[in-house]
Each structure stands twice: as C-alpha cells, then as structure tokens.
Amino acid sequence: MNRTVRVLKDTLKQFTIAFMVFLIITIVDAVVFWLYNSIFEPLFYASLICVAFLLVLFVMYFLINLRNDSNREHLKNTDEREWINNLEPKTLAEEDYCEMLKTVLKKFTEYDLTNETEKQNMLDYYTSWVHQIKTPISVMRLELKSNDTEENRVLLGELFRIERYVDMVLQYVRLDSNTNDLVIGEYPLDDIIRECIRKYASQFISAKVKLEYEGTDKEVITDRKWLSVIIEQLLSNAVKYAPEGKVEIKVTDDNKLIVEDNGIGIRPEDLPRVFEKGYTGNNGRLGMNSSGLGLYLSKKAADKIKVPISVESELSKGTKFTLDLNKRELLKD
User: Fold this and answer.
1) Architecture of domain 184-324
2) Mean per-residue pLDDT, 278-296
3) What value does the mean pLDDT of the chain take?
4) How far apart, in whole angstroms, are the C-alpha atoms of residue 112 and residue 118?
5) Residue 331 confidence (pLDDT)
6) pTM for the model
C-alpha cells in the first residue's frame, strides 16, 4: 500500500506542469471571453472536456507507473546485470543514466574480480606459510620431547600455543574468503569431541584443569573441520580462564553441545560483546595477551555451518557455551 501511495504522489508530480498549464490557459481564456463580453458556456464545456481528458490521461499514467514500479521491485531481487539489461529508457536522460549505470557496473565487476584474485592470492600465501612454518614447529617439538624436563614441558606448552595462533591465521583468512570449503556429512559427534580433547590434553594437565566428559552416541550433520575449530576454541578459553578448575563437556538429549567451566566468568556488561571482533572485555577474562579473535572466529565458524552458539556466564562462578546441533538444512552457497 505504501508503494502505491508513493507511485500516486510521483504521478501527481509528473502532471503538476500539465495541470498548471491547463489552469493558466483556462484563466487566460476566461479573461479574454470577459473582455469581449462573450458567452462563457462554450468555455465551460471545453474546460470540462479537457479536465476529463486530463483525468483519463492521469489514470493511464498512474497504472503504467504502477506496473513499472512492480517490475522494478521484482528486478531488485535479481542479479544487477539482469536488471540493468532489462531497463527500458524512454527519454534521452534515462538513456544516459542507463549508460552511466552500465559503466559503473563494468568498473565494479572489474574491481570485484581484482579483489577476489587478491584474496585468493593472500589465501594461497597464508596456506603455504602455515604449512611451511609447521615444519620447524614439528622439529622443535620432537627435540623438546626427547628430553623430558620441567623446562621442556613449559616450552612445549608455549609451542602448542604458537601452533594454535598459526592455525588461527589460516582460519581467519578462510572465514573471510568467498571460497566454499565446506564438506558436509554425518559424523559421530563423540569422535570429533575426543579428537579435540586429545589435542588439548597437555594443556589441561599443565593448567591442572579437571575435564569431565562421559561420551555420546549421537551423530551430527555438519562440517567436521569447522565444528572442531569451534570446540577447540571453547576448550582453549576454558583452560585459559579456569586454571586449576573444572571443565565439563556434555551433549543433551535435544542435541545441544555444552562446554562449561567454573572459571572467573564474564562481566554482565561484557557478555553481549564477547563474539565481537577484537573485543577483549574488562575483567581480565580476555586479558592483555588476548587478541579478541578466538570467540569471534568461533561465532563466524558457527554461522558458516549454521550452528547457533550462545553463552551464559556469572562473574567468579563460570561460563557456559552452548552449540545447537539439531539437524537443519545446510546451504552450500
């Protein structure tokens, strides 16, 4: 209804000049008839005929504008190339505007292609860089494991964190790229969780964090790699902010994966912003050595695989993250 009113107002604007010209002509004719003492009856009937003609013309233009508006509204939901090619200019000015739009679209397309090429080059570079840097990391790990000392255990922990930061670089670049690297399938959820736990086992031990997980026989339709990224980040946060505490992983009957710790918690004013890029909070949970990217990546990964993620927390009592793993259509776009 609003668009119909807008079309009506626009048509009235188009006819403003026509109505004004008609009014001026009528007034001039009336003055001339009066000066020559002519009979006004012919002028009256002629004016009525002109008014009727103008009204018919107005209704026709209104219906044409209404149809054109409906077509434009439909074209808005299509690809920009389609709607520009379907434009039908009726005046020289409209034709010029169409040509300008096509020029802008051409430049935008060229820029988009250049931007995509640069993004792909950057992704290729970081992918290569990650694989190359993991070689010296693996060598360092083997050397440190060959001599089990307290100092080497500390260094192994730091090396593990370095590797996690390296992985985060690649995850960050891939999340912001338009490449579709999803591999959707049905996987045993228990296998994914235990694989993440094994990866962080040494961190749990060194931080003296107790882990509780009873296992599950549920299957989940998802992308295994990105779900693992989310779980690993939640475990990383739990270890970091619940030292010498407890972390519990459980899967509910309604297919929700919960990672809960009894750590320092999150301030109420920080809670709505924990998934924001670069947000580090005020209570030290996301402290000075934090980049504020971990939970941001978790949220972006969760959005990528269509898994709702939520957080509950109470200061000094702990934090609970929940992933809703109920089966849903995963759009492969």
Assistant:
1) 2-Layer Sandwich (3.30)
2) 64
3) 84
4) 10
5) 44
6) 0.66
Question: What are the Cα distances from residue 48, in Å, to 23, 59, 277?
Answer: 12, 17, 68
Q: What distance in Å separates the CA atoms of residue 43 and residue 49, rounded to the nearest whole number?
A: 10
Q: What residue type is 11 in one-letter code?
A: T
Torsion region of 148: left, alpha or beta (phi above 0 gives left; psi -120 to 50 gives alpha): beta
| Partners of 257 in the β-ladder | 251, 323
Q: State how far the Cα of 128 lies from the Cα of 272, in Å rounded to an integer.
A: 36
Lowest mean pLDDT of 89-93, 95-99, 147-151, 222-226, name the range.
89-93
C-alpha 305, offset from chain centre: 12
Look-up: residue for tokens 């730091």?
158
Q: What is the mean pLDDT of residues 79-91?
A: 69
Domain ranges of the chain: 2-77, 123-176, 184-324
Query: φ and ψ at 221, to 5 degrees?
Result: -95, 115
Residue labelled with tokens 């995963």:
330
| CB-based contact 3:66 (threshold 8 Å) | no
Residue 165: other Cβ atoms inside 10 A: 12
> What gap in Å lies between CA 6 and CA 55, rounded to an integer?
18
Q: Are 319 and 245 in contact (CB under 8 A)?
A: no
Cβ count within 10 A of residue 212? 10
**Residue 301 is which amino acid?**
A
pLDDT given at position 81:
65
